[in-house]
Amino acid sequence: MSYISIILLAIALSIDACIVSFSYGLAFNSKRLKNSLSLALSTGIFQGIMPVVGYFLTGFVKAYIQPFAAIIVFFIFTYLGIKFIKEAFDKEKEKTLCIDIKCLILVGIATSIDAFSAGITLSLFGNRILKPSLLIAFVTFINSILGFFLGNKLKHLPTKYLEILAGLLLIGLGFKALF
After folding, report:
1. Cα(110)–Cα(139) distance, rounded to whole angstroms?
2. DSSP string covering 39-95
3. SS3 state of residue 119
4. Region of residue 95 (phi > 0: left; psi between -120 and 50: alpha; otherwise: beta)
5. What share of the chain is helix, strand, coil (3-state, %, to 5)?
6. Are 114 and 22 in contact (CB under 8 A)?
7. How many contiguous H segments (helices) and E segments (strands) does the chain have?
């Protein structure tokens, strides 16, 4: 694959992380910089690591795990989306939304399943993996930050409805993974 192709691949792989970050940006009212950086680091790191793992496990993954990738992504995003919607209806207003380490890991994994597959593709094309994985991680980090702050700019809308929208976006990504 050429570097232009790898850059386009990195942009395409970062779209899910950007949408998830947009959803989080809609929902968060405080600690925006810390939360956006935590989310961007999580998605960026997983997007950088997963192609490497896919690259080195090409044979095993192709045979055993790839058939279940869509279902794994579906369940993770649906879980997070339902959690967002549930939190929108909680009476307690000053609550901590799901940005703990467990949620960051789940988001990182869910948004990087495609990157895992990209690592397999890079292996089959005979590419080296270090530069593409670093580029994928960097592009994802930047797009995640952009998505978070774009979502956060819409804070003038009622928070409850934005949290429901964020949850529905995550559930939508889960269903998108199935088809």
Report:
1. 17
2. HHHHHHHHHHHHHHHHHHTHHHHHHHTGGGHHHHHHHHHHHHHHHHHHHHH-S-SS-
3. helix
4. beta
5. 85, 0, 15
6. no
7. 7, 0
Rounded Cα–Cα distance for residues 87 and 161 (Å): 11
* CA atoms of 155 and 77, how far apart (whole Å): 23
Q: Which of 83, 90, 73 is nearest to 159 (CA)?
A: 90
Name the amino acid, one letter, at 49: I
Q: What ranges do the domains of the chain cover?
A: 3-178
Amino acid in the structure at residue 24: Y
Round to whole Å and give the CA distance between 108 and 123. Answer: 22
Q: Mean pLDDT in each 10-residue stretch from start to end of the chain (179 residues)?
A: 83 86 82 91 96 86 71 76 77 60 90 83 82 95 93 73 74 79
**Residue-wise burial string across 99-137, b where 16 or more C-beta atoms lie within 10 A, e elsewhere:** beeebbebbbbbbbbbbbbbbbbbbeeebebeebbebbb
Taking every pair of Cα atoms in the chain, the longest distance, rounded to a whole number of angstroms, is: 54
What was the pLDDT predicted at 45?
A: 96
The 3-state DSSP class for residue 45 equals helix
- The CA angle 95-84-51, to the nearest 5 degrees, is 115
